[in-house]
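Researcher: Structure prediction, please.
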Amino acid sequence: MERLCDFNLSLEVLEGCGYNCSDCAVDKTFEPQGSVHPDAEQLLEMVGNLKALGFRPFEFTLGPTDIASSSNGLALLQSPLVKRLAEHFGSMVISLSLLSDRGLKELAGAIDAVMGGKRLRVITPVTVKNTKNVKYIQKLQERLALLKGYLKETDLYASYLTINMFKDNVEQFDADYHRTAMGISLGPRTTVEYSFAHSRGGFENLLRQEQFKRDLYKFTQIIADNDESFSGQLLHDPFDGIELGYRDGKLYYIPVVMEKFPIFDQFFEIPKPWSTETVMGFKEEQYHTNLVTFTSHPTCADCCHVNTCTHGDLHTTMRYLKIDHCPLGLKNRTDLIRTFGKDLAYCGQALEQLPVEQRGRHHDS
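Model: Predicted structure follows.
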């Protein structure tokens, strides 16, 4: 059965986070304009157009920080734009550090008013070290259960346990920590996500670029050598959906390098007016440029994953960062090969061949 892509939309509109987590990568000096920016209304038309073509609006995210401690979280949940977006999307995603239970009851009431009859998914950041802190994990479970109890009309369906892979987390990470993390359940069905948040600081700084390359390579080698069941996620399914991000009156295509990898640079900016044509035009342009660049690339051309990376976002990211080697170090790893069907022309042509548990969060029904 053929299917069209899912698409996700993130709104970077929260401000005033009350925490100072050691592994946070969000630039707190940036002050988002919120959803009141007049250009934000164009998002509704774009979403409607994509939906009319058969694309599935899957998740919309209110971010980038903890919504319960933010200064404008409740106000945004009551905004007309968020309410109208909620009519299109099946799930809303929020970040909750769960370091406190303050404000959870009020938050639940606001979510019920927007997402009644639909699903909520919660991103909870955790450090590598705290994956082995039993009391810490228990507190997260208790507070998530508390939120679930407060929700009367919304299904707290899933939790994303997110580990930002930089700074101390990278230094401490090893196969044992990975096994521990993969065994954690926060109550709702739990997915462990490893995020490389270096991109949030921008890549004008060459030292940050080099740090990202080193951190990503170290992580992938540990994973590929110790967890075959996870290895397929190292190479992003190019038919797994489209990620878009709204920030300060601009819309960005968000590449996926295992997980969302937001780079708020003009390179990834979707031109106005935002529409199906401009979004798909960006995607198609990247694919054709990748095709020309990497089918004759000295490293990539003879790799068994060249089609996957060309259709997906890895080659686009490599071009942006001017990386001339495989940043994952996974050339011709045959245990990572995925079959997407004979026609690789575009994501809308993919055949649904993979079992649900291998598809990642986009196909979490």
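Model: Residues 339-360 have pLDDT under 50 and may be disordered.
Researcher: Thanks, that helps.
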